[in-house]
Amino acid sequence: MAGGDATGKQHSSVTLDGKQHSSVTLDRAIYHISAVAEMTALHPQTLRMYEREGLVKPSRSRGNTRLYSERDVERVRLIVHLTREEGVNLAGVAKILELQEGIRGVETAIQGWMQQWHERIERELSSRHEALQPPRDESRKPIKVAVRRG
After folding, report:
1. Which residues of the chain register pLDDT less than 70?
2. pLDDT tens column, 9-49
3. Distance between CA atoms of 68 and 77, rounded to whole angstroms?
4. For the whole model, what pTM was predicted?
């Protein structure tokens, strides 16, 4: 389900690790680099390298400290999985992440088109249904039948 905030930015509900999160929660920058390093079993320098390579883009505090959101942490975990478990190099990881973002864009566009078609079909069916309904006055009139006796 999607919704908006005062800035007009759209937010949706997302499931990560079987838990439901709003994108507002996922995008809130709350973790320092040392916490993310500990959570992902990486050295802080590795996280800095991932940032230099454009694989992750943590936000910055007013003091220029890196602040990672839950979404950033999930992305780092995916990078770790791809490099350690799947043997993908960083160039391959970058391409995989790029393709994933492209797929999300296509999925969003398809969902929009499906919604538009659904609304169009609903309108068309509604107008056809109304056309099939007899006028109210005619359907309520009693029917006169002549009966002959005898």
Report:
1. 1-24, 131-142, 150
2. 344 444 555 555 555 577 888 999 999 999 999 999 999 99
3. 12
4. 0.63
What is the rounded CA–CA span in Å between residue 35 and residue 46? Answer: 13
Radius of gyration for the alpha carbons in the chain, expressed in angstroms and rounded = 29
Task: Burial-class residue 58 by CB neighbours within 10 Å (0-12, 13-18, 19+).
Answer: buried
Alpha-carbon distance of 29 to 66, in angstroms, equals 9
Angstrom distance (rounded) from CA 29 to CA 26: 8
Contact 140, 133 (CB under 8 A): no
Please count the CA atoms within 13 angstroms of the CA of 43 that sit on its side-chain side.
3
Cβ neighbours for 67, distance < 8 A, ≥ 6 positions apart: 29, 30, 31, 32, 58, 59, 60, 61
